[in-house]
Request: fold
Amino acid sequence: MPQTSLTIATNGPGLYEFTGKVVDFVAGTGAEEALLTVFVRHTSCSLIVQENADPDVKRDLDAFFQRLVPPSDDPSMRWITHRIEGPDDMPAHIKAALTQTSIGIPVARGRPLLGTWQGIYLFEHRARAHRRDVVLHLA
Reply:
């Protein structure tokens, strides 16, 4: 069962596409049919499959989540008690809970079966730069 880890550098909130790295990994394994699991080893970022043709989609998704879950120093978030790691930390955990930390993607003919405009993204929810670990596993 082939497996690898990727490190994705982020520089603040937003979507970071890494579809090409996933496609290269799958092709390099020689697997024709499998299930690819993509898993992020963190609790303040997440994974999504989303449109990769129009950059407005990325901007709109980020803006939506910023409005949905603002930083904990926003007056609407006074109820938050976990504040030790800064005003973006607990909101980042909430955003990760609303999305996902693992994605299953079927593989056929040696390629992930993504749709024409689908890309795989790490969705960073923290304000500062991070290095995020993503595990790719084929079974």
Notes: The chain has a mean pLDDT of 97. Residues 3-138 form a domain with the Jelly Rolls fold (CATH 2.60.120.460). Residues 55-68 form the longest helix (14 residues). The longest strand covers residues 130-138.
